[in-house]
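Follow-up to my post from last week.
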Amino acid sequence: MKRKWHHPEAELESGKRVYWRSYDELQDTPEFREWLEREFPRGAAEVSGSEADENTRRSFLKYMGASASLAGLGLAGCRRPDQFIIPFNKHVEEQIPGRPLYYSSARPVAEGCIPLVVTTYEGRPTKVEGNRLHPEWKGGSDVFTQASILDLYDPDRSAAFRKEGEVLGADRFLEEFEKGFLEPFRAAKGAKSALLVGASTSPTRDRLISELFKVSPGLQVFEYEPLLSLARRQADARLWGDGVSAVPVIDKADRILALDADFLGLDPQGESSNARWAARRSPGKAMARLYVVEPAFTLTGGVADHRMRLASSQVIKFAVLLAEQLGLASQVAPLAAKLGLARELIDAGWVKECAADLQSKKGRSLVLVGSRQPVEVHQIAGLINQALGAIQGASGPLQLVRHGRKPLPGIESLAAAIRSGAVENLVVTTPSDPLYDAPASAKWGESVAKLKSLVHLGVRHNATGRRATWHIPGAHYLESWGDVRSATGVLSIVQPMIQPLFGGWSELHLLLKLFPVPAASATAAAGGGAPAIAEDPGYTAVRDTFATLVKGDKELAWGLALRDGFSKGSKNPLAVPAAAPAALGFEASALADFPGPDAIEVVLTPSSHVWDGRFINNSWLQEVPDPISKLTWDNAALMSLATADALGVTHDGQLISIKGADGVSVEVPAFRLPGQADFTIQVELGYGQEAAGRVGEGTGFNVYPLLRKEGALICTGAKVERTGGKYALAPTAIHWSMEGRAIVRENTAAAYEEFVVKGHGEDWKNFSYNQGMDGHIPPNIPLYEGPDYFRPNKDQQGAPLGGRFTVDENHQWGMTIDLNTCIGCNACTIACQAENNIPVVGKEQVINGREMHWIRMDRYFSSPREKAGMTAQRVYVPEGRGRPAHDDDTVEMLTQPVACVHCEYAPCETVCPVNATVHSDDGLNSMAYNRCIGTRYCANNCPYKARRFNYFDYNKRRTSDFYLGPLAPAEGLGMTSLKLQKNPNVTVRMRGVIEKCTYCVQRLQSAKIDAKAKARDSRDVMVPTGSVTTACQDACPSRAISFGNLRDAKDPIVKLKEDPRNYDLLKYIGTRPRTSYLARVRNPNPKMPGAEHVGTGSFGGH
Amino acid sequence: MSTQPQVEQDLRGVAREPLVLSGRDYKWITNRICGVVENKQPLIWWLVAVPGALLSLVLLFTLVYLVSTGVGVWGLNQPIAWGWDITNFVFWIGIGHAGTLISAILFLTRQKWRTSVNRAAEAMTLFAVVCAGIYPGFHVGRFWMVWFLAPVPNANAIWQNFKSPLLWDVFAVSTYFTVSVIFWYIGLIPDLATLRDRCKPGLKKALYGIFALGWRGGNRQWRHYEMGYLLLAALSTPLVLSVHSVVSFDFATSVVPGWHTTIFPPYFVAGAIFGGFAMVLTLMIPCRAIYGLHDMLTPKHIDNMTKIIVLTGTIVGYAYLMELFIAFYGGNPFEVDAFHMRTVSGPYVWSYWAMMFCNVIAPQAFWIPWCRKNLVVVMCVCMCVNTGMWYERFVIIATTLARDFLPGQWGYYEPTWVEIAMFVGSHGLFLFLFAMFIRFLPMIAISEVKGVLPQSDPHYHPAH
Amino acid sequence: MSVITEDKVKRTWGYVAEFDTAASVYEAAKAMREGGYRRWDVHSPFPIHGMDGAMGLGPSFLSRIVFCGGLAGSLTALLLQFGTQVGLYPTIVQGKPDNLFTIPAFFPVTFELTILFSAFTILFSLLVIIRLPRLHHPLFESKLFTGFSDDKFIISVEARDPKFAREGTREFLQSIGAKQVELVEEEL
Amino acid sequence: MIGEAPKVHPRPGPHGGNKHGKTLVKFFTRGTGDWDMGNFFPRWTNLLPLKILFAIFLVATGLAAAVATYWTKGYSVVGYQPDQPIPFDHSLHAGQLGMDCRYCHSHVERSSHANVPNAQTCWNCHSQIRTNSEKLVPLRAAMDESYAGYTGKPIEWVRIHKLGDYAYFNHSVHVNRGVSCVSCHGKINEMKVVWQDKSQTMGWCLDCHRNPATALRPLDQITNLNWRAEESDRESFYAALAHQTGTKVADLEKRAQERGFETKGPLTQKEIGSQLKEAWGVHPPESCSACHR
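User reply:
Got it. Predicted complex:
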């Protein structure tokens, strides 16, 4: 019975915008374009925004490789609509439909880079991961890097060339730009012109700028980003000379003192500091000890062994006191004279013992200073570090790297030059948005008005872009060629993965345009290969630079650099410091008084969501909860409970006005958190932008007006009062306390020594294993034995239970999360979001408690007082916030990532009526979305609350349209390009189904399939040890997450599961989770005041 | 209330008061009960039926909105994945227990006073189960996939998970509904015959005639009929007990502290009887007044039911206290905390104490005979119990989920307008269906009431 | 015994006799039984206690049928559950077994289906036994008969009864206390 | 009063209601008139319940049968045979000419997808052979730059086999572990125009995953769609298997005997499959996450 269906002639959609571009050997040939458009007609249809296609599209989207699928509902009898498979005309090298390709690249950041490996599916980059080959980084990334992939596909990215706001086509723009700006610029040899760039370590950019000086001697170059540490650069220059920066190498330090320095979090210093710090936190081996002095909890403060809360403006006094203790009294004498009350208010015992401890590890001690601290503190720290012998060439914890870059003047000088008439034309390429974030001292708005022309190159059409005469859409780093040096100088090539989706230019491209027509770099031909790649002029420029930087076979070196992601042996040389730096003339400026109710200190910090504001339109970052406050989608004025009381703040979200010392006032909602210095308010920068895009619009509050001078992130003497208004904040956690439950377990290094190292028999259990209820779990006497996933199947037919179910004898997956090295940075959360197509739900739904992150970062505060009496903090404040009624210096922060722990005896499974969630033979708690009907019973019965429910069609509708249901526009997103980011191997879930961590089952399956396909007729189907990783594991900057095959004796996970610190969360219930945790170990200095409280956060309760 | 003195006299009388007062005869009973159906409905009926119908439309609208838009239109969230939906389900299912219980258990225990209330109570059961069924049916995320719950052979070759209490629920509730319908219908057959025989030819007679199945009341039918009815009663009794036990398994078999409690099945069953009787009284007392049924729904009936309420209310109160005691005595800190937060420190403490007052304190009034006789007091207490039983389910579901194992994922839940509209709408549907029942069917079992008249005893002689 | 009236053929079906009280019909029933009648019945608005004895009827056999129905329900449920959970597609949920040990989880559904099948058996076998639905019946031709659903007690005697005699039976009925007696004829 | 003859009315006979064409509605809504006594329902209504019951039974059975037949993939999908832009004849290429499947579907052993060949693949031969065929116009339009109708547009093949978007099938693991193309696609080498030969439902997948022995065959026969177990040579099969697994033929034969296979006579698929499953450790997953993720 063969029936024929005749299909109508397929209509080719021509003339529609195609985003499918890639730098590939055949890119941009008609074949390639066609392939991209035809091979993925659905993707293409989405890209073209065809409503008709969207209507017929199934909600379970899968972005398959070479297969087309435009499914209707597929009713019986009615034939599904014909679908087409459109193969290439010519084969694309290395491209196998259905298999990903991996390329190395790097994400440039202000003082270095994050080396990456990028996963691409048929030309679409979908995921970035740390480059494990990189000599300094060895993998790992951070939350911004993980989220940067979303920026690439941001539909609100600048997509058009504009002249005075008017959109011009690329060709016409180029023509007019050439005539209107470039020709006059070249003709004037750059006179009265300036370039405002962001911070970068790109050798090519440096080369181009210096070459540009030669041909355009009139050009001036300035550098601006609001969060650059000018003070550190200044101090480094004073202490160690020009072109040298002091790079901490954390793993070489035994004692670290961080002075307002969140070096593990938002104030990164050095390279791969998290991993290096983590490496020194193994109990039993010589553990490093971390002292932190800071105004409010940071991730660094959270993992500190000793932490002092101290107003940011007072840190200098601490530094002075410390210097005195370390025998540098004479050098700091001018400041010591101005200490005022500090000698009484700063715990002298703390300072003394801290100093003694640093001194005791001479040569292995390190003092780090936060970027926002004034130059004096950096200088004092430099002196201390030198006195402590931290600088010993390549072996010391502080290395003086000679990068040779000349410091560029900042925005204040530029503004002055503009106002004086010295600069009339300005080219802005900085990734920040000066019209929004420039300090008041620059009077930037006023200055810009004086310009004749303003050229703006930016990925976002931000405030500066809107004001610009010429706005050029910028290329994302995944779209452009570039190069970058890490902090120690290792050179990486930034490779594009895809042609600019919106036709943007890279910074190098624009710089090259400024050259006289036969471009300087065009002389060096790019060798024989790949002419097509030359479309981005940056390519030749980067290759030219590269050729000057390597010796030997340049072709080979280039190839290796592209393959490995770095150029071997390209580290910068180390500088040798003067034996003793000359006494440094401290500016004898007055030291600010301790803040008080009338003179509040406001600390402006980088945002964990939007950094300095550049990620304002990145919904992943907006929605990832701040690691400490757990706020999403907003910034807030964080304050201690005492401060809140003093200011009359009774509820979170009450609006306060902050009036700076010079009268500028901003309004921000208040949010209370423990562990903050009193009368210090911390606010994140970067919010409240007007030109933000659809995601960022209306989020948060702009506090840049408080930034009075470049780098002046500490504002003292502010007047703060309640305005009477209220604002709805969206925190994802409403509770602070562990309620005396041993959830995040910790103990001290001394206890480890006692119970584990020196202990006998079962003593080790006293360390963490028996904490809480686990010490008295009654014996489990089952009627029948549950499945034993580690017992071999007797026969292929046999099963552990005598039933038909057999276990996988080769693979049993398991995970451990080391709470000792996990600092709670959220990189895993975002990596998981990128890998698993997790939707963003918007602020309203976060307030409703419906965030979808598969990994939730639980954060608890604990303090001895809480432990003393459990009832003290059980105060219920309406609006659903349980508040500890305490806030003191001993408060500790504990973080714990919680995802599905894949219980062997999973309570969720038994309650599902339709068998949508059952156990797999390799020990996964699997979730079949297509079977799920959404009773949510599993979510209720999950003790870890790891299951997430799709309350709405999150993937299909805009966050504002959820409640409209089918009345919302069919393609309400207007965000079709975002879909290109989706991982084709993971189902995009529809409304009404539960989802949760799958252990990245798509990776596991593909590894197993590859192993089987490789095995062919042999029985050796075990996945090679360590060859499969989960997304969170890859992303973790401190390697806290380990994942592996418990059946593979060689796998490190097997050892970790036997670690004495290993414990199961909520073991009492008997769920036998496959994810277990390793208890945190704090390493207190027993002589420190309050040392007895350190590392006891999980004691005492149950 | 012309018969009141008579009643008083009767009450003072010897051992057993008559079940039908004023010496009413068969004819009177037939006329009075059929009269409700045959005569025009009083204004108050319209005041119930019309708003009931409108509210049912509201329910319909919210259901359409819910299914078309997503469960997100409710206020549920991450820790609290069940809220008013399952609360209302358990609430209605609980109410749905009194009917079959009165019919079955009281029948088996030869409580003849049941005859005056069982028909309405059974109808109430059905309507309550209809209301209840809406919630689990529609609370799922993908309503159009609900058929996955039915074990039908399919091309995917997959089946249900028969270990899931939710699937047990599906079987229990649908069985309960079906059996209740059968029970109710079998009971209705003789009365439908009465209505049929009183009707003039026409559509009405045709419909009553069809549903009366040609009942001829012959003893050769009655004897099998009685056996069938007895068997149904015998089956319904464990069924009633099982249904609410199974509903309680939804909670009791879970691991959630505050749910994971072996006391749940009896506690739920007692609660269901408790709430069901309160709802029966809530409905029957107005009906009695409106339709002049005082002689059939006598103070004795009300007295009996209030006594059951105070009994079951006390059982429920005992269960509440036992829960607390077991939590304390068991020493499981998660459970201790769960109950601590329920009763003292959690976000929903008010609902716990509302429940405590309504379900345990208020019914204690019924120890006092005066309160059992005063219909105003009875109505007030019954309304309290209705409210309290709703709160009980809310306390069990919402407060428990809001505060379980990991404080990092604690939350708070409040309903949206959709949930409130659905709640009100389901009450509308219930009232509408009940009004329709009053309008078209005999609300008191005619043949059964006749059967308990003294003259129905074949050895009865008026002289004695 | 057919009478032709106009175009219709009528056949005598029997007599119906009306009684006023339960007690009188009870006595009359005893008399009927003693009088040797076989095909007769007592129609009453409610089941009269002891009437089975008076009429000489034994207990109903319905319960035995229902037992079979219930058993069928139990077996169906067990088969369905065991077959699908252990036989057709065993799955591991919460480490629970996929063999005989899993049966306790099947009790609730087994119980419910037992009840459900029993209830259906009751309904359908009851209807079969009492031969309902039968909307048309010669008795409905009688004027007196409909009183059974109100306040009257009716004894009906079929003409097929061997003891039936057109006059004799009427007299007998009157003699045992019938208030009214009516001849029922059915059309053919 | 006693014995009063009932009134006689002209009324329908035993089957009157139907015969006289009265509709039910009319019947039920007839006026009271002189119908105040006597049987309200005509005699034929006594049989009505049985008739209705019977009708319901018939309709339900029919409906169930219809759904079971037509509302299944076996009916709606199997046999799907769309016209292709180029009427590529598999029976000619794969059948008569004996081209290996992997010549065109070249990534099938490496990727989840068995790719449809690039136009270049066709062009390899058809730039020389039958260049002027009418049928090959789309190919020339795609590839032949000298052709007048050259567009460079790739060929749009109509997709035949499609699983749900939520099912992740992987070709490579099947063809590398002894499952032939023919198991899922049928005898493509005999199809002039390809149709879908198997329902490819989940139940169908599971049949094989539970009993892989029904499909496994030696790896060198994967793309030989004509291979039949019965035609394989017993001795060479066992010799090869023994060689590959490093066991003795005798042991293998003993195993076959234990499994209840005849050790003489022609081989059967079951025997071959069961031996290969054992030898290669084939253990196809039945877990949800194997295909859904």
